[in-house]
Design brief:
It contains 13 helices and 26 strands. The chain has 555 residues and is of the alpha/beta class. Among the domains are: 1-188 and 196-205, Leucine-rich repeat, LRR (right-handed beta-alpha superhelix), CATH 3.80.10; 367-555, Leucine-rich repeat, LRR (right-handed beta-alpha superhelix). The chain has a 14-stranded mixed sheet, with no helix packed on it. Strands 16-18-21-22-23-24-25-26 form an 8-stranded parallel sheet, sandwiched between helices. The longest helix has 16 residues, at 539-554. It is elongated and about 100 Å long.
Length: 555
C-alpha cells in the first residue's frame, strides 16, 4: 500500500546527494576522507521545491520488487521503484500518474520507454538508472520542459540522446556517467544554458563535445573522469569561467595522443579563477613521462595553479612520474586538501601552512616530508590531521605545531617507531602556545625508530626528556632548541656511544646543567658539543619557525 506522508518529495534528490535545502553536496573520491564541496543550486530548483512543498499531501511509492501498486491515484507526486527488473513500463503507467513531480526507476532490462512519457508535464526530477538494455529515448522526452534534474547514469547501452533534449532548457543537472555506449551529444545540448552540473564520467566513446560544452558558461561542476577525448580541452575550459569543480582524473587513452591534447590544459586551468576542486589523478602521466627534466614537470603544475588562488582541493594522486612539487603550492592559502597517494616517485613534500588533509599513501620513493599539525573542527570528535602520517614512510620527517595534537592516542596511531626508513626527525612545538596534551606525555608517545640518526626537539616545554632517548643507538646528532624549561638530559645518554654531535641552543636551564662537572663527565663520550647557535639551526630559522607556527594557529 502507498504511504501517506507530508510533502517531502524533495528528499528524493538524494539520488545525486541533493538536500531539501537546495544545496548540492559532493564528496570527491580517493581523497582518503569525505570532504564536502557545497554548490548552491539554481533558483529553478528552489522554485520546484517550493511548489512541491506548498501542496497538501502526497503518496510516496517506494517499491523494491518492481511492480507499482495499481491503487495509486491522481494525488501521487513521487514514485520510486528500486530494482525494478521485472517492471513493465507501459504508457498506462504514466497516464495514470500525470501529476508526478519525482520519478526514479533503477535496474531494469527495459529496452525502451513509451512515447507517452510526455504526459508527465510536471516532472522536475527524473532518474532512469542502470537500464542496461536501453538503447534510445523517445523524442517526446523534450516535452518535459519542467525538468530540473535528469539522471541516466549506468545506461551503458544508450547510443544517443533525442534531438529534442535541447528543449529541456530548465535543466540544472545532467548525469550521464557510465553511458559508455553514447557516441555523441545532440547539437541542441548547447541550448541548455541553465546547466550547473554535468557528469560525463566513463563516457568513453563521446567525442567532439567540448565545443558544445564551451557555450554552457554557467557550469559550476564538470566531471570528465575516466574519459578519453581531450582534444580541444583548452578552448573548452577557457569559456567555463564559473567552474568550481573540475574532475579530469584517470583518463582512458593512448599516451601520445593524450599528451598533445593536455598541453593546452595548463593555460586553460589557470584562467578558472573560481575553481575550488581540481582532480588531476593519473591525468598528467603522459606529459610527465615525456618531459626531459623534472623542472619541466614542476613548471607544468606551476602554470596550472598560478591563477587559481581559490583552490581548496587538489588531487594529484597516482601521477607516477611526478618527482616533486613546485614551491608555488605553498602560496595557495585556501588549499586544505592535497592528495598525493600513489605518487611512487615523489621525493619531497614541503610544509604548506593551510593544509588540513594530506594523503601520502603508497609514496614509496618519498625521502623528505614536512608536516604541519592542524585541528580538524569538522571531525565527529575534534581531532587533528597528525593521524594522516600513519601511512607515511620517508627518510626525513619534520612535524611542526605539535601543540595542536588533541590526545596521546593520535600520536600512537602514526606508529612512528615502526617507520624503519626514518633517519632524520624534527619535532616542533610553537613557543608559548596553548597545549591540549602535555609536551612530556606527547613526546613519550612519539618514540622514534632505532634507525634514526639525527633528532631535533624544538620548542618542547617539558622539564625532562623520556628515558627512551638512551635506546636510540643509531643516533649521531642530537639538537635541542628553544626548550626553555628543560633542566636535564636523561642518564641513559651514556648509552649513546655513537653520538657525535650534541647541539643545545636557547635552553638556559639545560645549558646550566651541562656546565656541572658531574654532568660534563656523563657527556664526555660525545666528541662535538655546541652550546651556542648551531650552524644548521640559525636564529633566523628559529624565528621563522615560531612565526610559521603562530600563523598556522591564527588561521
Amino acid at each position: 500500500m502507498p504511504v501517506l506522508i507530508p510533502a517531502i518529495a524533495v528528499l528524493l534528490y538524494v539520488g545525486e546527494r541533493t538536500t531539501a535545502t537546495g544545496v548540492f553536496i559532493d564528496r570527491p573520491h580517493a581523497s582518503g576522507k569525505e570532504s564536502a564541496t557545497l554548490f548552491t543550486m539554481h533558483n529553478l530548483l528552489h522554485d520546484f521545491a517550493k511548489e512541491f512543498l506548498n501542496s497538501f499531501t502526497y503518496c510516496l511509492a517506494i517499491n523494491y520488487h518492481g511492480k507499482p501498486d495499481e491503487k495509486y491515484d491522481s494525488n501521487l507526486r513521487a514514485m520510486r521503484c528500486v530494482g525494478c527488473r521485472e517492471l513493465e513500463i507501459t504508457g498506462d503507467l504514466f497516464s495514470r500518474n500525470k501529476g508526478l513531480r519525482v520519478l526514479e526507476l533503477t535496474e531494469s532490462s527495459v529496452l525502451k520507454l513509451p512515447y507517452s512519457i510526455w504526459q508527465l508535464k510536471h516532472l522536475g526530477y527524473l532518474k532512469i538508472s542502470e537500464f542496461s538494455g536501453l538503447v534510445t529515448l523517445p523524442e517526446s522526452l523534450g516535452d518535459l520542459t519542467n525538468l530540473l534534474h535528469i539522471d541516466l547514469s549506468g545506461c551503458s547501452g544508450l547510443l544517443n540522446l533525442p534531438k529534442s533534449f535541447g528543449k529541456l532548457i530548465r535543466l540544472v543537472h545532467v548525469n550521464l556517467s557510465g553511458c559508455s555506449g553514447l557516441a555523441a551529444l545532440p547539437e541542441s545540448f548547447e541550448d541548455l544554458v541553465n546547466l550547473l552540473h554535468i557528469n560525463l564520467s566513463g563516457c568513453h566513446r563521446l567525442s567532439e563535445i567540448l565545443e558544445v560544452l564551451r557555450k554552457l558558461d554557467k557550469l559550476v561542476h564538470l566531471d570528465l573522469s575516466f574519459w578519453s577525448c581531450f582534444e580541444g580541452i583548452g578552448k573548452c575550459l577557457a569559456g567555463l569561467t564559473n567552474l568550481e569543480h573540475l574532475n579530469l582524473s584517470n583518463p582512458c587513452c593512448h599516451l601520445a595522443q593524450h599528451r598533445s591534447h593536455l598541453q593546452e590544459l595548463k593555460d586553460a586551468v589557470a584562467k578558472l579563477t573560481k575553481l575550488r576542486y581540481l582532480n588531476l589523478s593519473m591525468c598528467l602521466n603522459p606529459i610527465f613521462y615525456h618531459h626531459k627534466s623534472q623542472d619541466e614537470s614542476l613548471q607544468f603544475i606551476t602554470d596550472c595553479v598560478k591563477g587559481i588562488s581559490s583552490i581548496e582541493h587538489l588531487d594529484l594522486s597516482h601521477n607516477t612520474f611526478l618527482f616533486g612539487l613546485p614551491e608555488s603550492l605553498g602560496d595557495l592559502n585556501r588549499l586544505h586538501t592535497l592528495n598525493l597517494s600513489g605518487c611512487i616517485r615523489l621525493k619531497k613534500v614541503a610544509a604548506m601552512k593551510s593544509l588540513k588533509f594530506l594523503s601520502l599513501w603508497n609514496c614509496q620513493g618519498l625521502e623528505s616530508c614536512s608536516f604541519v599539525v592542524w585541528v580538524d573542527e569538522d571531525a565527529p570528535y575534534i581531532s587533528t590531521n597528525i593521524v594522516q602520517l600513519e601511512g607515511v614512510s620517508c627518510q626525513e620527517l619534520q612535524i611542526s605545531c605539535l601543540e595542536n595534537v588533541r590526545s596521546r592516542v593520535e600520536a600512537q596511531r602514526i606508529k612512528l617507531v615502526e617507520k624503519q626508513k626514518l633517519q632524520k626527525l624534527k619535532l616542533s612545538w610553537t613557543l608559548d602556545s596553548h597545549r591540549s596534551v602535555e609536551d612530556s606525555a606527547l613526546l613519550g608517545e612519539l618514540v622514534p625508530p632505532h634507525t634514526v640518526q639525527c633528532l631535533e626537539v624544538n620548542g618542547y616545554s617539558g622539564t625532562c626528556l623520556p628515558e627512551y632517548f638512551g635506546d636510540l643507538t643509531s643516533l649521531q646528532e642530537l639538537k635541542i632548541v628553544s626548550c626553555k624549561q628543560l633542566k636535564s638530559l636523561p642518564d641513559t645518554m651514556q648509552k649513546l656511544t655513537g653520538l657525535k654531535d650534541l647541539c643545545i641552543f636557547d635552553c638556559p636551564e639545560l645549558e646550566k646543567w651541562c656546565q656541572v662537572e658531574e654532568n660534563k663527565k656523563m657527556l664526555a663520550h660525545i666528541p662535538n658539543k655546541n652550546y651556542e647557535e648551531p650552524a644548521s639551526t640559525s636564529r633566523q630559522e628559529i624565528e621563522e619557525d615560531d612565526r610559521s607556527g603562530n600563523e598556522v594557529e591564527a588561521a
